[in-house]
Amino acid sequence: MRTTIDLPDKLMKKAKKLAIEEGITLKELFTRTLEKEISGGVSAQVAPWKQLHGKGSAQALQPEDSGFEGYTGPDWNHALQANEPED
Predict the structure, then answer these.
(1) Burial 43-53 (b: 16+ CB within 10 A, else e)
(2) pTM, whole model, 2 decimals?
(3) Residue 74 burial class via C-beta count within 10 angstroms: exposed 0-12, middle 13-18, buried 19 and up
């Protein structure tokens, strides 16, 4: 569906920059962002490490560059029970 909306210039520039950085179209960025907002941000959340794909070497990365700040996605090790004593 086509629609027209007025966005502040600064916001549009940031959106264009982000779309270019992620290698996606503005349509994909707006669709993903709107779906995330409507769903409460949980199911449409992109895993942080996927955003780092193809960004080069990790040698210069610092812990604060990980992309996990504020990540609320699924816990990958929720089922691990190694060496836990039985009751």
Answers:
(1) eebeeeeeeee
(2) 0.46
(3) exposed
